[in-house]
Structures are given as structure tokens and as C-alpha cells.
Amino acid sequence: MRTVFTDVRVFDGEQVHPSTTVLVEDGLVAGVGGPAPQGHVDRTVDGTGRTLLPGLVDSHAHTLPEDLTTALRFGVTTVLEMGGPSSAADRAAWAARPDSADVRSAGQPVTAPHGHPTQLFAGLSGPGVPDPAQWPQTSSPDEARILVDRLVAGGSDYVKFILEEGTVMGAPGLPLLPHDAYDAGVRATHEHGRLAMTHAQTAATWDQAVRGGTDALVHLFIDRPHDDRLVDAVAASGAFVTPCLVLARSFMGIPATEPAADPRVSGRLTPAWNAALGRSLSTWDAPFDDALATVAALDTAGVDVLVGTDASVDFPSGGGLAHGASVHHEMALLVEAGFSPVRALRAATAVPARRFGLDDRGRIAAGLRADLLLVDGDPTTTIGDSLSIVGVWRGGQETTGRP
Length: 403
Ligand SMILES: [Zn+2]
Hints:
Blueprint: E1 2-11, E2 16-25, E3 28-32, E4 43-46, E5 50-54, E6 56-61, H1 65-73, E7 76-81, H2 88-95, E8 102-105, H3 141-153, E9 159-163, H4 179-191, E10 196-200, H5 203-212, E11 216-217, H6 228-237, E12 240-241, H7 245-251, H8 257-261, H9 263-266, H10 271-277, H11 288-300, H12 325-336, H13 341-346, H14 350-355, E13 372-376, E14 389-394, E15 397-399
Parallel strand pairs: 1-4, 1-5, 6-7, 7-8, 9-10, 10-11, 11-12
Antiparallel strand pairs: 1-2, 2-3, 5-13, 13-14, 14-15
Helix pairs in contact: 3-4, 4-5, 5-6
Bound molecules: zinc ion.
Residues 60, 62, 82, 310 line the site of zinc ion.
């Protein structure tokens, strides 16, 4: 199968090429630039007035198989799950379907006994709702190492730790992983050659995570405005940050009203998910501008910032998030924080590919997977154009892009 995109603006994951040709062959990008290819072509896609992007990456979600289908409809071709009950075999089966995004996962996150998120699942049951009793919970360093060994043996692509004392979630006083158990877990993760991800949403828990050697902070601290000391400590540690501004905004009582009212969004979501997008969690009272300023400060200090959403199961009490849709919303919020549109797009393509070692994707270059998103307009100057989806290709196969 040979597909050629002609006269198309290309964002290759790093740079913009004004008008060029992209050839796709056998599921891979075969070439960028140059004249139209000779010989048989199965499909020619006119790119006039359009932009071709690498498939997007959601670097923080929790997924059921149908969520991966929703994500793909929004041009999200890779979902990095930050905790879930699926096995590696489940995920391989899901990702093999042509209407599914590809997926990697931490498996179940490591938390303290009765720690977050066990409180969220009290009294809930149904598909995708984990049984808290099965959750890796510990307060001892020895046990933390054993839990990490077990997770890696069970196919976790990276390991996630939870440091959540509940302040911004309306559940203050949740038990925290002790420092020594957390540190031992991170060390064990590194001994396995895996990345350690940390859920932390307060300045104090960010401090604990950075001291413990985390590779990533997969939320933003929103309990207070940033200060130079903490921002500099994160930058010096080399950790990346997936702020999930869409979630912070929802905590602060701001529903995703505009995205939910956009037909380019609502047309790709079920009514239930679209309604969820238009709600908010409203558990924390703080100015959202502080969150934007924190992200801007991290960026200025040289910290890699990645696009993630924390889209999960549709909790009755949840809101402000939806699979796929929130990736576009998060990019728009990064632009609000001061990123150029090109840098917001990098945060959902080349940057996560580099930080997660996904060397076969995240850019449009010869030899890489043909995971592609074609949109009308130019999101490299107007970020909202990322939602004007014309087509989505996964491994060179076009998907409908429609429910
Ligand atoms: Zn999460």
C-alpha cells in the first residue's frame, strides 16, 4: 500500500515544512519532501490548505478498549496509561484492532495502604473499575521493591507511584507512601531499567518525588503558586512534567464548556462523555492563572513539558475531561500558558516519544511508523485547527475519524 500526501504543510514533530510531499509505504513513512514519487500509488491525498502532523500522544490516561477508539478518532495514535488493571496481553489485543490507538501502561500504580485512589472506588463496580484490594499498597521499602519486581515481571512498561495526600482532591488526610518506601520503589524501578512516574499534586509531594529520583511528575502541584527553589530543583533533576492542566482546571471548578460545545468535539464523543466534559470536579479553590504560571516557569527553566489528560472512566462525580478531546484542549491550554503552537504540538509528539523511548513514532521522518493526523488549516499558527480533523492514519492505515 502506497499513499502520497501532496502539497501539504508538514509539522514533522519538530519543524514546519511549508508545502511538500510525504510518501507512506507498508505502514511506514518512506520519504518527506522532493517531487511526487514515480510508479504505482494506491492513494493520493491532496494536502492543499491542510497540515499533516505526527499522530498525537496522550501521556497520561486510564483506558478501556473503547477509550482507545475514541482517542484515535481525535488523532491520538498512542496512549500512555498511567495506571490500570489491564495485562500486557490485553493491551496487545486491544492495540491490534485497526480502530484502536496503541497503548503502553504502568499497570497498577503503587500507593500507600488505603491511599489514593482506593477512596475513589469505594462503592463503585463495573467494567474498568479496579478492585482496591488488588492494588499494590505498601508502607515498607522491602515490600515496595517486591511490588516493583512483580509489576515489571507482569509487563509494566514503566512504574507509577502515588504521593497523594488529598488536599486538592477534596479528600485531605489520605495516607502517603513513606519516603523510604517510595525511594526504594524508585530505585528498584531504575534497577529494572524502567522509568519511574510519580503522581503528586502539592509542592511538598513534588519535593518528595524529586528527592526520591523520579523521572516524571505526571500532574501539576496546585496547592500554592510556584517558587524558584522548587522549579529549579525539578529542572536540575532532569524529570519531565505532564501537568494535565485540563484536570487542574476541573479541580478549580472550570468546566470544559467551550470544547464540549464545539461540534468537532461533540461529533466524536458519546453524549455521556460530552456531558462529562462540560462538568467540573470543583474540589480546590485557587486561581487557574497560578497553574499556567507554574507551567510557564517550568518551561522557562528548561523542564520538558508533555501533553497528558488523566482521562479515565466516566465517574459520576468526575468532569472536565474526555479521551482524545482533552489532548487538543491541553495543547490549547499550553498556548495559553505561553507556549508557541509549535511547542505545544511538540509536547504531544516528539517530546513524549523521546522521553518514553518510543523511537518509532512522534515524528514524520523516513522509517518511522506512519501514525498521522491530517487537519484543515494550520495548527502550527492557530492551535485550535488541530481539531479540524480530515483523516487519521495508524501504521499507514486510514481510520474513519468519525464515530
Ligand atoms: Zn491519572
